[in-house]
Amino acid sequence: MEYTGSKYIGEYVDGRMEGKAKYILPTETIYVGEMKDGMFHGEGTLYFPSGSQYDAIWENGLAIKVWLNSPIWTHLEKSPRAITIVETASITQSRG
Fold it and tell me: Where are the transmembrane segments (predicted)?
């Protein structure tokens, strides 16, 4: 499913993105992990085009616990947009 220029490959529950998934954002940043009600929720990793990654436990679209209490960057991430994605990881709005 494509949603606002993004691509979702994963499970659905009652028509909502939920379960294990791969979510490709228009910026080519990729989220691989768990989703609930259309948001990052549970264990998941953001992979940035530069090759860096951000491993975290997510709750309702926000990173609440980062592995080892700090971001795990495999390469220096210089993109302010990437940081914005981490801070505002909620990717869809709930539909009523």
Answer: none
What are the extents of the domains in the chain?
5-66
CATH of 5-66, picked from 2.20.110.10, 3.90.226.10, 1.10.1040.50, 3.40.50.12370, is 2.20.110.10
Whether the Cβ atoms of residue 51 and residue 63 lie closer than 8 Å to each other = no
Query: How confident is the prediction along the chain (96 residues), in pLDDT tens digits per residue?
Result: 555 788 999 999 999 999 999 999 988 999 999 999 999 999 999 998 888 888 889 998 888 877 654 444 444 444 444 444 444 444 444 444
- 64 closest CA partner among 43, 38, 34: 43
